Amino acid sequence: MTSQIDVTPVDIGELDDKLVLQMYRRMCEAREFEEQLYYLFLTTDMPGTMHQATGQEAVPVGVCTALGPNDYVTSTHRGHAHCIARGVPIDGMMAEMFAKREGVCHGMGGSMHLADFSRGMLGAFAIVGAGIPIATGAAFSARVRKSRQVAVAFFGDGATNEGVFHESLNMASLWQLPVIYVIENNQFALSMRVQESSARTDLAGRACAYDMPGVTVDGNDVTAVHRATRQAVERARTGDGPTLIEAQTYRIRGHARFEPAEYRSDQEVEAWKEADPIERLGRAMVAGGVATEDRLDGIRADAASTVEAAIEYAETCEDVGPKDYLRYILDETSTEGVNECAH
């Protein structure tokens, strides 16, 4: 397992300094959001549950910084970083965690069902693989409308064994849809290693069955993820069809909330921590003259302040009521609430 770990410096290369700083800031915000959420679930009567992606921040940030403002994204039950990378307001996200009316889904969605259509975030989905056909449908819509929009589906390694994965890739290739499928291969589907669940562990290699490019990338190197996605976006926008990207990464915490993840060793976790995507980019930024250590400290402090302010905001927001759900359900004869549902 540790043979897949890459701790070499990331290559900033031709990337604009402003973009690199944005990548670092977004990853810090995503990490801080999840760490504070972990603490809140330990100490506060938080509703529902949550799944963290600590250590995986380079994948959503690398992908989303290669997209345009009108492109589409679908997420998973582990989707906080996807939303932050896409620019969904952090205070609205935190209010949603607290089940408040000011949340991005008015307190109706919670951690596993975040959405913000105004940012192209079509939704996080608790069902494994559920976002794959939705992104495929969004890409079909873009093709029909000739809008040059691109859709991205994020999903885990376990979802590649779902039938909808194969059905969607076949359709996308057949119709040359502008969609990018991103496997966040964090080595486990809940507690099962990918080697125990997939006959072919080279998951990007599954692309050949559907006549599309399959790319494997270091998922803890945000610049590598960004470059791979940028190429896939260019291919999609010019009408050359879909791409499958496998980003190899690792989730530092357990599957959900306080699950102890006893199916892996402490030594394995510590080895992967050495490939921390935030630390790797930070070292490259200092070495490349993009930022000083003091500036990186400032960015991390800003991220912490942003999340702390979001918590304070959420605590002052209005709790959802027992009848709130009725505002978002339509009967056969009424159109009342349509605009709110479209939010």
Count of alpha and pi helical runs: 12
Helix coverage percent of residues?
40-55%
Task: Give the end-to-end Cα distance, rounded to a whole number of Å.
Answer: 43 Å
CATH domain fold name: Rossmann fold
Q: Give the number of DSSP strands.
A: 8
Strand content: 5-15%
Total domain modules: 1
Q: Averaging pLDDT over every residue, what do you get? A: 93
Which CATH class is shown? Answer: Alpha Beta
CATH superfamily: Thiamin diphosphate (ThDP)-binding fold, Pyr/PP domains
CATH level-two architecture: 3-Layer(aba) Sandwich
Topology:
Layout: H1 17-43, H2 58-64, E1 72-75, H3 80-86, H4 90-97, E2 121-124, H5 131-145, E3 151-156, H6 163-174, E4 179-185, E5 188-189, E6 192-193, H7 194-197, E7 214-218, H8 222-237, E8 243-248, H9 266-273, H10 277-287, H11 293-316, H12 338-342
Parallel strand pairs: 1-2, 1-3, 3-4, 4-8, 7-8
Antiparallel strand pairs: 5-6
List keywords for this structure.
343 residues, Rossmann fold, 42% helix, two-stranded antiparallel ribbon, six-stranded parallel sheet, disordered C terminus, alpha/beta
